[in-house]
Amino acid sequence: MAWTKYxxxxxxxxxxxxxxxxxSAKWADNFSAPGCKGSTEHSFSHPFLQAxxxxxxxxSCLVLFHILLCHDRRSPEPKMNTxxxxxxxxxxxxxxxxxxxxxxxxxxxNMTSASSFQMLRGAVIxxxxxxxxxxxxxxxxxxxxxxxxxxxxxLLVVGLADFVSxxxxxxxxxxEVITGDLLIIMAQVIVxxxxxxxxxxxxxxxxxxxxxxxxxxxxxxxxxxxxxxPMYYIPAGHFGNNPxxxxxxxxxxxxxxxxxxxxxxxxxxxxxxxxxxNFAGISVTKEINATTRMVLxxxxxxxxxxxxxxxxxxxxxxxxxxxxxxxxxxxxxxNGLHKPVxxxxxxxAWFLGQSSSEERLLSGSTASVNQDT
Length: 373
What we know:
Blueprint: H1 5-30, E1 32-33, E2 42-43, H2 47-74, H3 92-109, H4 114-120, H5 124-135, H6 142-166, H7 174-202, H8 209-231, H9 250-259, H10 262-287, H11 290-310, H12 318-334, H13 339-342
C-alpha cells in the first residue's frame, strides 16, 4: 500500500530531525572559543549542559501534548485518547536512567566520531534482549538470538575500525577514541534498563506517548539542572575538559557562547530536533509501523555518516562500512524484518519460531518512549 503524504512527511521528519540531533551535538563539540575571565580559547566540551538542553526538548513534548489536548477538547467530538490516570513518579526511575545514559553518551561524543557514536548505540539490542529474558521472563526467538550475536560481531568490527582510524586521528588520541566507544556501549546497558523499567511499570498504565516523553523530560531537566550546581565544584582532573578542570563548568559554557554565538545555533538545533524527532518517531509507529521506525533509524546512521564525511569530520574507513552492514543485519533479524521473505520460502517456515505475542521488547509500544540522541 502506498504511503500518504502525511506518512511521507512523518518519515522525512523523523529521518531529518534524528540526523540533526546527533550532528548538531557534534557540531557544538567542534567549536572552540575563549571562556570566562579572559581564559584562552578551548573546545566547547560541556556534555552535561548539552544533556540539559536535550531534556528541555523532551519537556517541550509535554507542552505539545497539552496544546493538542486543549485543541481536541474544543472540538465537537473529542477523539484524543489521553490514557488513564497515573502517578507521574512511575516515570522517575526510567527518567534517571535516561539522564545517566544521555550524559555518558554526550561525554563519549566528545571522544569519538558521530558515525561511530550512532552505530555503537545498536548495542542496545543486545542488552535489552538479555534483560527482557532475565527480568520480564520473555522468551526470545531463534532469529532474535542470532540477531544479538550478529550485532555483537558488528560492534567488534566498528570498534576495530575506530582502533585503526584512531591511530591516524589528529583530533582525538587513540585512548580517547577507545574510551568513548566503551562509554557508548556502557550507556546502552542503562538504556536497556530504562526500556525494561518502562515495560514493567509504565506501559501498563496506557499513558499517551507524548505525555510519557514529556514527563520523563521534566524529571530529567529538573534533576540535571540541579546537579549542575555541585558539578561546578567537583574536581575532575583532565576528564573535565575546561579551564577549571571541574565536572561541568556551566558559566564557562555561557561565556563561550557569548564569544562564539554560532554555538547557540548548534544547541538550538539539538533542542528543537529532539522534540520533533520524538514526535515523528511516535507518529511513525502509530501511522505506519514499528519496523519502518527501525529502518528509518538505520538510515539516520547513513545520513550522519555521509554528512560527517562531507564536512571533513571523519575519514572514509572500509571497516566501518562492514561494521554498519553487520549491525544492520543483526538489527533486521532481531526486529523480524526477515519474516516477510522467509514466509514465502516453504522450507524456511519452521525458522520463524513463535507467535507474534512473544515479539521483542523493541517493537511497537515496547520501544523506548524517547529514542533520543
